[in-house]
Amino acid sequence: MVVYSIFATVSWFVIERVGRRKLFLIGSIGQSLSMVLTFACLLPDDEAAARGAAVGLFTYIAFFGATWLPLPWLYPAEINPLRTRMKANAISTMVNWAFNFMVVMVVPLMITSIGWGTYLFFACTNACFIPIIYFFYPETKQRSLEEIDLIFAKGYIDNINYVKLSKEMEYLDAHGVEEMNRKYHAVEEKQYGSGEGGFDTPEGERTRVGSQSSKGEGVEREIR
């Protein structure tokens, strides 16, 4: 727990400098290799070699505390627009705790049944995340929520990969965000019509407000 708390604290200072995407990758690689070290040291069935397995568990905790511990609470809120952020965070939290519960319940049974194979299984599980993060997770460091919305808007309308766009798109100030938002809002209306839901627009642009009628049906009205 001392190692856990130290590296969880480290994440406060590196998350905005290193970036979410890199930390996800570093954490997945480090956790996978830690599990490889753990199961490899258990293979000889020797007490001296098994001490290396404890080292693997400590390095796993260190990598997890600095990366995968804070990131799942932060990243979903950043990549979701305002209209879905609350529900998306609720779903991500529910899934997070559901799998935490599942792991806690099944790991003792796995260790009893397959021994070192438990750690091999989790090494592979962590490794499976690496290509998913590399190809599908855009970087959000040092960007405002409005800029992140525009990465997805521009990527969708101009058919540009979100990961590539997050690297190449310049950082915008408030004026740049407003100008770019206005541009892509106009393109969206031209392509899909004003009745379609779009991304969040700055104050002064047309805003859609969803409300519930007395019969429970969704009502959309436009205000200026």
Helix and strand topology:
Blueprint: H1 2-18, H2 20-42, H3 47-66, H4 71-79, H5 82-114, H6 117-136, H7 145-158, H8 162-168, H9 174-192, E1 207-212, E2 218-223
Antiparallel strand pairs: 1-2
Helix pairs in contact: 1-3, 2-3, 2-6, 4-5, 7-9
Written account of the structure:
The structure is a single chain. This protein has helices spanning 2-18, 20-42, 47-66, 71-79, 82-114, 117-136, 145-158, 162-168, 174-192; strands at 207-212, 218-223. A hairpin with a 5-residue loop joins strand 1 and strand 2 (218-223). It is 72% helix and 5% strand. The chain has 224 residues and is mainly alpha-helical. A two-stranded antiparallel sheet has the order 1-2.
What sort of overall outline do the alpha carbons produce when their principal axes are compared? Answer: elongated
The number of distinct β-strands equals 2
How many H/I helices?
Answer: 9
Overall mean pLDDT stands at 85
Strand content: 5-15%
Strand order of the largest sheet: 1-2
